[in-house]
């Protein structure tokens, strides 16, 4: 299922409503609809890819694409922010023990924070697009993620890249699965990183970080 692009909060509403609608429809047909990230061991997992762009509030111009078709420095810094900080925000994109069974080598899911142009093996894919549609696709989040939290986490990481003027690595050509695994491998590792990242705490708030961590540790 694809959702048309729009405001981040509105899109999270749509994803949430869609999942509830599917579950209700399934129940009425004596079927249980699951949004687990890896419901079947030998089948591809279920993802929630998030395409992100930023526009000027006054003009509506896409700030990620330059007039000559190139990427803007802001766009590259946004990608660099995702690369640096997303591993620390994983409890918001991979919230359950099962989530990490999807992120395995040789599957359709990413295993690291590399990026590439129209490369579906990387964590972050830049689709072929004109400047007005320039965007980055975050392919890490699973279908089990809360859409509000997953989108917020992704935007927070990109924002940190912009304000810190970070530079991304070179885009990957070919399979990124031949490169090292750099995402957390399990929930305990993800929660440890989540609690250790001061920049994310400053954006999301200490109370929020503590609340998420306490809930997940209890689970």
General description of the model:
Helices cover 39% and strands 5% of the residues. With 219 residues, it is mainly alpha-helical. It has a 4-stranded mixed sheet, with helices on one face.
- Our measurement of the CA-to-CA distance between the termini, rounded to an integer number of angstroms, reads 30 Å
Biggest sheet strand line-up: 1-4-3-2
Q: What's the pLDDT, averaged over the residues?
A: 96
Spatial extent as radius of gyration: 17 Å
- Total count of strands: 4
- Can you give the helix content as a percent range? 25-40%
Can you tell me the overall shape? globular
Q: What are the secondary-structure elements, in order, as H or E?
A: HEHHEEEHHHH
Largest sheet features: 4 strands, mixed
The helix/strand class is mainly alpha
Q: Approximately what portion of the residues adopt beta-strand conformation?
A: 5-15%
Q: List the quaternary state of the chains.
A: single chain
Unreliable spans: none
Count up the helices: 7
In a nutshell, what does this entry contain?
By secondary structure, this protein is mainly α. Helices cover 39% and strands 5% of the residues.
